[in-house]
Amino acid sequence: MRSMLSTLLCLPAICLPLVAQDITHAETEALVKSAIAYGKSNGKEAAFMEITHPGGRFRKHEGELYVFVYDMDGKVLAHGQGASKVGVNQIKAKDPDGVEFVQERIHLAATKGKGWHDYKYLNPKTGQKEAKTSYIEVWDGLIFGAGIYKK
Q1: pLDDT digits over 23-60, tens only?
Q2: Residues 86, 47: contact at Cβ < 8 Å?
Q3: Which of 49, 81, 86, 116 yields a CA-CA distance of 20 to 30 A from 15?
């Protein structure tokens, strides 16, 4: 009886990770702010390395939520999807609807310093191009951001 009770009490802890967890706007903003704080404490280069590292602290939900960093000219300085994106200038990048989302990101950064913007992007979990919204914030002339797929 005691072992069965123990098993039943442990069941939620075992099953909870199996339940799909929606990524919230608040979690996304907090991740960006955390990456900026990390950069302030450890330096930009250390932050870029940690953001780009596949097992780094700025990659969550099996890679669906990650931080990216761009300069104001559209060059990728760090990216949670991997090092292959680093160093690439994305100023002319367009989503499937023709939205130049990096230019929109730069415009938002230059005019407001932070905020949300919408576009479509390849979801690493589904392999499909899906509607996405990203939160960006400028620190020291750089654009730090993270995005979530709209459900």
Answers
A1: 999 999 999 999 999 999 999 999 999 999 999 999 99
A2: no
A3: 81
- Per the CB < 8 A criterion, the answer to whether 143 and 73 are in contact is no
The rounded Cα 143 to chain-centroid distance in angstroms is 12
Each residue's pLDDT tens digit, 85-110? 999 999 999 998 999 999 999 999 99
Sequence ranges of the domains in the chain: 23-149
Among 120, 123, 124, 126, smallest CA distance to 93 is for 120
Phi, psi angles (nearest 5°) of residue 95: -85, 175
Does the domain at 23-149 match CATH 2.40.50.140? Answer given as no
Radius of gyration of the chain measured on its C-alpha atoms: 18
